[in-house]
C-alpha cells in the first residue's frame, strides 16, 4: 500500500517533504521541535473532543492531547504517518476534526493556500486550527537565506499574513505565541550556554523568536435573519363621491 502511494504521489512534493524531514531530524531541527512541543502541548491540554489531526514533515509522532480521544497523523507516505494523502487531498469529511495541527506544513508546501484551505475545511465549527511556522524576521529566518540544507526550502510565511488567510477562511485568531529564542548555532555547547534565553523570551513573548504558534477558532455559522421585504409607499386612500339616489328614482 505504501509503495503504491509512493508511485502515485507528486515526486516534487515527496522530495520537498524528504528534505524537510532530514533537516528536522538534525540538531537544529530537533532544537526547534523540542521548544515547539512544549508550547504545543500546553495549548492542546485545554482542548477536548473526538479527533485531533496533525500534518507536517517531521518524523515525530502526533502531539500529545490527553483530552482528545483519537490522535491521528496524515501526510506523505513516510514512517509514522497513519493516513497517507497529498497536501491538498485529505481523505476526511468536512468538519471531521475537533483540532487540526499544521506543524511546518505551510513552510514546506507546494501550495500553502491549498493546504490551509484543506485543513480549514476539516475543522468543525467551534473547533481549532493550530499552525506552527518558522518566523521569517528571526535569526532562523535569516539563516534560511544562506542555508545549504532543507531549511533553504522553507517558505517562512509571516504570522500576520497567515492570520489574514485564516480570517478569510472564517477563523478568529485567539492566540499568538513565540518560541525558540536561541539562534540556530550548530554548537551544542553554545546552545546549552544560551538556554536561559528561552525563559527570558517566554516571559516577554518577544516576536524575534525562531517559530510562531497561531491558535485560531472556526466561527460557528448561525442562522441569518430573514430579510424584510421592501414595501413600496402607497398613496392615501381618498373617499370616492357617492351618488345620491332620491326616493322618487328608487320607486321608479
UniProtKB/TrEMBL annotation:
This is Methyltransferase domain-containing protein. Residues 87-131 form the Methyltransferase type domain. Pfam families: Methyltransf_11. It comes from the Bacteria. One of its GO terms (molecular function) is S-adenosylmethionine-dependent methyltransferase activity. GO terms for biological process: methylation. Keywords: Methyltransferase, Transferase. InterPro entries: Methyltransf_11, SAM-dependent_MTases_sf. SUPFAM superfamilies: S-adenosyl-L-methionine-dependent methyltransferases. It comes from Ectopseudomonas guguanensis.
